[in-house]
Every structure is written in C-alpha cells, then in structure tokens.
Amino acid sequence: AKQAYVRAKPHLNIGTMGHVDHGKTTLTAAITKVLSERGGAKYVPFDRIDRAPEEALRGITINISHVEYETATRHYAHVDMPGHADYVKNMITGAAQLDGAILVVSALDGIMPQTREHVLLAHRVGVEHVVVALNKADGADPELADLVELELRDLLAEHGYHGVPIVRVSGLRALEGDPEWEASIVALLEAVDDTVPVPVRYTDAPFLLPVENVITVTGRGTVVTGAIERGTVKVGDTVQAVGIGEGFTAVVTGVETFGKTMERGEAGDNAALLLRGVRREQVRRGQVLAAPGSQTAHRRFTARVYLLTAAEGGRHTAVADGYRPQFFLRTADVPGRMDLALEAGPGGGTENGGPTGTGIALPGDTVEVTVELGRPVAIEAGLGFAIREGGRTVGAGTVLAALD
Ligand code: GDP
Ligand code: MG
C-alpha cells in the first residue's frame, strides 16, 4: 500500500531561478542531500533533476522538475527548470505558482542577463518573496562577492524587493559532503523559512486545478497532475474539465502528492488526481478541472494589457489591431487575435482604442483590448495572462470580463 501524506506542517511552493549554469540544479540536489541527512527529504541526485522526462503535449515541450523536502517548520515542493524558456512559460502561466523564489547567483560571475529577467518576471507574476543563494562561494574572492551583493541589492530594490537575505552557499561543496558548506545550505533554508510567509490559501472557494500534465498509469487509469489553485478535493468528488477540448465530468478515485495518498488535496498542493472512466486523450494541458458549474470556457474576453518595453525583453515596434500573438493563460498556450479596442465598453462602441485612440500601441503602453482566442479556455475576471511571440514575452495582461 502507498504511504499516506501527513499534513503536519504548512505546505509552500518554492523554486530556484537564475542565470543558466549559476548552479540551480546543483543547489536543488544539495538541498535534498543535506536535508536527507537530517530526516527531512529523500536525496534526489543531480541527474534525476536535470534529466526530468520531457513532456511533449500538443507540440509544447514542458520541462520542469519537482522535488519535495521538509524543514523543521514547513513542507516544501520545489521546482527546478533547465532552460530560460521553461521559466518564462511556467512562471508567467502560473504553472509554477511560487510562494517564494530562491534566486541563484554565481558569486564568480555576478548578475547576468537571465538574472535580471527572472527578477523582473518574478515581480510581474506576483512572487513577493525572494531569497538569494550567492552560489559558488567556495571559489569566490570574498571582496568580489561583496561587490556582487551590492549590485544584487540594487537590482532587487529596483523591482521592489527590499531586505532580501543573501546567503553565501556552495551547492557543489555541500553535495560533496563538506560540513562547512552543508551548514550554508541549512542557513539558506532558515532564511527561506523566515522570509517566505505561509500564503493565504483559498480552501473555501470552489475547487480549481489547472491541468499541467496527463499520464496513463497501467491498471489504474488516467492521472491528471497540477497545482490546486483553489478549494479542496477528495476521493468521490465530481470534477468538470473546462476548456480546450470538449470537456467532461468525472469522479475522482484517487488523490496523491509526490506518490503519497492524500485524504484531501488543498489549494497550494501539487496533486495527482486519478479520474474514473476518462481516456487520456480527453484531458489536455490548458484545461482546468473545476467544481461542476464553477467555471466556463470562453474564446473572447476584454483585458488590460501592459506591453513590455524593449529593455524588458519586449517588442521594439508597435502592435496594431489584428495582432496575432500566443496567449498563455494558466497552463494553456493558445494562439489568438488582439484588437486595441474595448468591445461593448461603457460607450458601447469600439472607439476606446490605444491610449491615443489610433488603433496602435507602443512598447511601454498599457491598453484595453479585446482578445479572441483560437480555442476556448476557462476565463474569469482578474485572471492574469502573458502574451508571447517568437519565444519571448512581449506583454502581460489581466482579464476584465469574459465575452462569449
Ligand atoms: P544551472 O544551469 O543553474 O542548473 O547550473 P548547474 O547546477 O547545472 O551547475 C552549472 C555548473 O556549475 C556545473 O558544472 C556545476 O558543477 C557548477 N557548480 C554548481 N554549483 C557550484 C558551486 O557551488 N561551486 C562551484 N565551484 N561550482 C558549482
Ligand atoms: Mg539546471
């Protein structure tokens, strides 16, 4: 029989971010190793994290590793991603709903472009709490590390992160068992425990889980995984799949987290739900599983959109009516069309265009728009989304109202 998950401590979702090769995966492995020696984790070696199986669903490759561990006061699910594009996709779409982030910066290299982009991204998607792991401190000149630290404080403050703990660590040396550097990992986790508060979870709201992945387990059926956004779920509940495909309702026959059975999955948990009588092809990443009747799928909606400046990685040129980028809403990635006018706005017309009313908008502008998606997706007022084009993020938006 499977082990049962005991909810003895509050659960939080965190993850590493930072420039490629600064040591995110090494640090992730080191955390599990150091905590495994203290009874708080199962050691997950570097290769198991870095070579997580790629999931090619509908032509999108998703690459994300989850590990779990416990400190004295918390249970953490921790995500690590190999590539910059994976961060953008998973963070902006909310697939990785981080309550806090560990920004990994190599003390040997200092701030690099993806360091800046991930700080900007974290701020844009609402990650409020950051702890810095100033990594590779084993090989760094302490005075150089002091300089990197000063520059980091400036960068973080520019994005509204003040009083961020910066802990000097060596993931590699901790992984090798050096007691001094093992202690640095413990200090880092203490900083995370102290800095990232337990978030408010909407456990009383109707159940909602954006589908991240679908797998078939031989002899058991179809398993859907994702982070529970709101509400709770238990065996025997009926859930409704909304968006992308045709949709269906099904009874939940199993709830698990990290291979352990759960009596009740709650908002904030990474859950795997076993669904009765559902074929794998019926479920798609981008759908949501929801309490029946609580969510509806829409192709059209109005929104307020911020277009990133070129310096933020956005476009260099204006967008016009009929602009056709890719829209990322929760775990959904769908093509669509954007018009720089608010349909059925207070004036009833479409005169409400860009800030200048010209039907074009420039990088740096905030505009009200009407979006038509290529496929219906669960939409509600207040939902955040990203606009991407050619592999980069060019805009961030919030839904004002669902149309049809
Ligand atoms: P990621 O791309 O951010 O996940 O970086 P990796 O974890 O794959 O590490 C990149 C390289 O940096 C590897 O060769 C690691 O062995 C090395 N590395 C990682 N952490 C440390 C550290 O603390 N000290 C030293 N000296 N090297 C490290
Ligand atoms: Mg890595």
Automatic annotation (TrEMBL):
<dbReference type="Pfam" id="PF00009">
    <property type="entry name" value="GTP_EFTU"/>
</dbReference>
<dbReference type="GO" id="GO:0003746">
    <property type="term" value="F:translation elongation factor activity"/>
</dbReference>
<feature type="binding site">
    <location>
        <position position="25"/>
    </location>
    <ligand>
        <name>Mg(2+)</name>
    </ligand>
</feature>
<comment type="function">
    <text>GTP hydrolase that promotes the GTP-dependent binding of aminoacyl-tRNA to the A-site of ribosomes during protein biosynthesis.</text>
</comment>
<dbReference type="InterPro" id="IPR004160">
    <property type="entry name" value="Transl_elong_EFTu/EF1A_C"/>
</dbReference>
<dbReference type="InterPro" id="IPR009000">
    <property type="entry name" value="Transl_B-barrel_sf"/>
</dbReference>
<dbReference type="Pfam" id="PF03143">
    <property type="entry name" value="GTP_EFTU_D3"/>
</dbReference>
<dbReference type="InterPro" id="IPR050055">
    <property type="entry name" value="EF-Tu_GTPase"/>
</dbReference>
<keyword id="KW-0963">Cytoplasm</keyword>
<dbReference type="InterPro" id="IPR004161">
    <property type="entry name" value="EFTu-like_2"/>
</dbReference>
<dbReference type="GO" id="GO:0005829">
    <property type="term" value="C:cytosol"/>
</dbReference>
<dbReference type="InterPro" id="IPR041709">
    <property type="entry name" value="EF-Tu_GTP-bd"/>
</dbReference>
<dbReference type="GO" id="GO:0000287">
    <property type="term" value="F:magnesium ion binding"/>
</dbReference>
<feature type="binding site">
    <location>
        <begin position="80"/>
        <end position="84"/>
    </location>
    <ligand>
        <name>GTP</name>
    </ligand>
</feature>
<dbReference type="InterPro" id="IPR009001">
    <property type="entry name" value="Transl_elong_EF1A/Init_IF2_C"/>
</dbReference>
<dbReference type="InterPro" id="IPR031157">
    <property type="entry name" value="G_TR_CS"/>
</dbReference>
<protein>
    <recommendedName>
        <fullName>Elongation factor Tu</fullName>
        <ecNumber>3.6.5.3</ecNumber>
    </recommendedName>
</protein>
<keyword id="KW-0460">Magnesium</keyword>
<dbReference type="InterPro" id="IPR004541">
    <property type="entry name" value="Transl_elong_EFTu/EF1A_bac/org"/>
</dbReference>
<dbReference type="Pfam" id="PF03144">
    <property type="entry name" value="GTP_EFTU_D2"/>
</dbReference>
<keyword id="KW-0251">Elongation factor</keyword>
<feature type="domain" description="Tr-type G">
    <location>
        <begin position="9"/>
        <end position="200"/>
    </location>
</feature>
<dbReference type="InterPro" id="IPR027417">
    <property type="entry name" value="P-loop_NTPase"/>
</dbReference>
<dbReference type="InterPro" id="IPR000795">
    <property type="entry name" value="T_Tr_GTP-bd_dom"/>
</dbReference>
<comment type="subunit">
    <text>Monomer.</text>
</comment>
<comment type="similarity">
    <text>Belongs to the TRAFAC class translation factor GTPase superfamily. Classic translation factor GTPase family. EF-Tu/EF-1A subfamily.</text>
</comment>
<keyword id="KW-0342">GTP-binding</keyword>
<keyword id="KW-0547">Nucleotide-binding</keyword>
<dbReference type="InterPro" id="IPR033720">
    <property type="entry name" value="EFTU_2"/>
</dbReference>
<dbReference type="GO" id="GO:0003924">
    <property type="term" value="F:GTPase activity"/>
</dbReference>
<keyword id="KW-0648">Protein biosynthesis</keyword>
<feature type="binding site">
    <location>
        <begin position="135"/>
        <end position="138"/>
    </location>
    <ligand>
        <name>GTP</name>
    </ligand>
</feature>
<keyword id="KW-0479">Metal-binding</keyword>
<keyword id="KW-0378">Hydrolase</keyword>
<feature type="binding site">
    <location>
        <begin position="18"/>
        <end position="25"/>
    </location>
    <ligand>
        <name>GTP</name>
    </ligand>
</feature>
<dbReference type="GO" id="GO:0005525">
    <property type="term" value="F:GTP binding"/>
</dbReference>
